[in-house]
Design goal:
Number of helices: 10
Helix content: 25-40%
Order of helices and strands: HHEEEHEHEEHEHEHHEHH
Radius of gyration: 27 Å
Number of strands: 9
Structural class: alpha/beta
Strand order of the largest sheet: 1-2-3
Distance between the termini: 61 Å
């Protein structure tokens, strides 16, 4: 554990020095450490303009720079927090991630993980990276982040943040369809034929959904008279990689990760899915029965007397 911490601490120092050097142009280009900007299909984005626009969260950092509070009562971080590249953003900016001088490592485990802000919908469509919606800012601020695009893990942050409530994800109510299931939900190809399997059109939100459940959702919106609005979208490739045997469970994972607000489909309520999200009251119930052949009757003397021997194999007798 000490060797692990030493490595991470040295990495942290290297990244800090690199950042300072790039800012001050005091180092030659061949001395600057190459910093990742995320994996293909899920690149880091610069969200400093979004953070600086949150005037109700404005503050000053410990070194006197303008910043934004990560919660209503702080901490205060620089506007560059989470933006542009894969860094230990929490270790660099968050005061509670600074090592305690008494033991050198008294801070949450997530502090040393590299991550960055990303375009949530682009990552869902074009990569298998795990993406989460940020819940440290007001619900109307749509910021998404990824650890895996930086070849890191979000487990420590998810554990630390377990009791936080995810807010609406992509504006209004975003509903994901996990698959095409006739007659519930489906799309058509350019020729007008009903599709039964997903292709590139699945990730194209301009191709409309049709089916019984779409009619049902539209009726609910009409009855609500504008109280809520539902937009239909796709499930993330990252969750599908996590749940390769069920696109339905993968869509529920997207709810848990904050990427969508609900998943629509003919769902079976399972224990695994209940751990990830709540379910509505069922509006349709499947009737499942087990059918077996009717047992025959053997009334011969041999059949009846052999029942005495049936409980044991010949070897036991």
């Amino acid at each position: 554990r000490m060797l692990h911490f030493f490595f991470q601490y040295q990495q942290f120092i290297s990244l800090i020095e690199t950042s300072k050097t790039q800012t001050n142009n005091a180092m030659s280009s061949d001395e600057v450490i190459s910093i990742s900007t995320g994996n293909d299909g899920c690149q880091c984005t610069n969200e400093s303009a979004v953070l600086s626009s949150l005037v109700e969260r404005s503050c000053q950092t410990s070194d006197g720079q303008n910043g934004v509070m990560l919660a209503a009562e702080g901490p205060c971080v620089n506007y560059s927090y989470g933006s542009g590249s894969c860094l230990q953003h929490d270790f660099i900016h968050d005061p509670k991630c600074q090592p305690n001088t008494s033991d050198g490592a008294n801070y949450p485990a997530y502090c040393i993980r590299t991550w960055c802000y990303v375009d949530g919908k682009s990552c869902m469509r074009s990569s298998t990276e795990r993406v989460y919606r940020s819940n440290v800012f007001p619900p109307e601020v749509d910021l998404f982040y990824s650890y895996t695009t930086c070849n890191s893990s979000a487990d420590d942050w998810v554990d630390y943040n377990y009791n936080s409530d995810m807010q609406h994800a992509l504006g209004g109510i975003a509903a994901a369809f996990p698959a095409y299931v006739l007659p519930y939900m489906y799309k058509r190809n350019p020729a007008g034929d009903i599709l039964t399997s997903k292709g590139n059109e699945y990730y194209n939100n301009s191709v409309p959904y049709e089916g019984v459940l779409i009619n049902f959702m539209d009726s609910l919106q009409h009855t609500a008279n504008g109280d809520f609005n539902v937009s239909y979208t796709y499930g993330s490739k990252g969750s599908q990689l996590l749940h390769p045997t069920s696109s339905f469970t993968a869509a529920v994972q997207d709810i848990n990760d904050g990427l969508v607000d609900m998943a629509v489909g003919p769902y079976w309520v399972t224990g695994e899915r209940l751990k990830l999200a709540s379910f509505t009251i069922p509006f349709h119930m499947d009737k499942t029965v087990l059918v077996i052949p009717k047992p025959g009757m053997k009334n011969s003397i041999i059949a009846q007397t052999s029942k005495v021997l049936a409980p044991f194999t010949m070897g036991v007798w």
